[in-house]
Amino acid sequence: MNYRALQQIYFRIPVVLRLLITVLALMALFGVLIHFLEPTNFPTIFDGIWWAFVTGSTVGYGDFVPLSVTGRLLAIFLILAGGGFVTFYMANLSARVVRYEQDLSSGDVTYKGNDHIVLIGWNERTRQLLDMIIERELDESVVLIDQSLQNLPLNKSPIHFVRGSASDDTILAKANIKEAKCAVITSDPSEKEQQADQSSILTTVALKGNNPDLFIITEILTKHQIQNAMRAGANTVIRSNDFMSTLFFHEIFRKDPVKPFNLLLDVFDEQQFKQFELPKEMNGKTFLECSDFYAQHEEILIAIIRNGELLINPPFHKKLETGDSLIVLASLY
């Protein structure tokens, strides 16, 4: 390999690593020279290299000292040349660390992990979901993709921020979407419902195209876009409007409200929703009979899913069928 080829390889190496190689080579050179110039004061080459590092870094322990004029002249060159390289290396390394922290906060760093959860869109729902993951001490790595945030505080551990549009393949590559296990797409509250749903569906297509095995949960606001979201590749479609509208309806027409509506929502901080297929022994039973069964286990049956449609608090006499899914509210503790 000729000199030009070696030079090209050298300049392809990152700056910090090049500086480190230069410092190591320079210290080794001065260490070898001082050993041959003063073998009595520097019995081994390692002693010479140790002296070069101590002197070049201006630490100066004084355990090895050149006594000859030639040795001292060499020490002067070492202080002038080696000291400058060491200082420049440390300054460059510090600048790189600061720049990396800034890039991390501003969402410009590629995520290298795998088997992680990807949250798309920074809003109140995403923040609450992240808080629940942290509070429950779940051992999960989370990547947030959002284009509205300029930066994310680094204390939002264990979240890794990637700034940009989740429908952009370059941004998805930064989030290492090919190695992710799950993605949650939340609707953009700043957009109109129709536009927000279209954005969510487009994002679903982009995610599925980059990782066909990815489990995708998509929030949809309008009912007629549910099938489109499923066609786009969403494994689960959540219509937050349905659930919230039902809660509002029951609160408006309740004859004897016991407490403010906002306190009702606080209940969910200590509860979790569970979804599972209808047990065989429940087939043909009414919603009331199933509700009584789960009430005995301190759980509340609140809805069923039939043919892709969510039925919240259906009539008590409604009979459950094979293929139905149950939504149950259970305590976390």
The fourth-level CATH homologous superfamily of the largest domain is NAD(P)-binding Rossmann-like Domain
Q: How many runs of DSSP E, i.e. beta strands?
A: 10
Task: Write down the Rg.
Answer: 32 Å
Helix proportion: 40-55%
Low-confidence stretches: 257-270
Question: In percent, how much strand structure appears in the residues?
Answer: 15-25%
Structure classification? alpha/beta
What is the CATH T-level topology of the largest domain?
A: Rossmann fold
Which descriptor suits the 3D outline? elongated
Oligomer description: single chain
Instruction: Figure out the total of helices.
Output: 11
Largest sheet: 6 strands, parallel
Q: N-to-C terminal Cα separation, in Å?
A: 67 Å
Helix-strand pattern, N to C? HHHHEHEEHEHEHEHHEHEEE
CATH class of the largest domain: Alpha Beta
Question: Would you tell me the overall average pLDDT?
Answer: 80
Sheet with most strands: strand arrangement: 3-2-1-4-5-6
**Name of the CATH architecture of the largest domain:** 3-Layer(aba) Sandwich
Count up the domains: 3
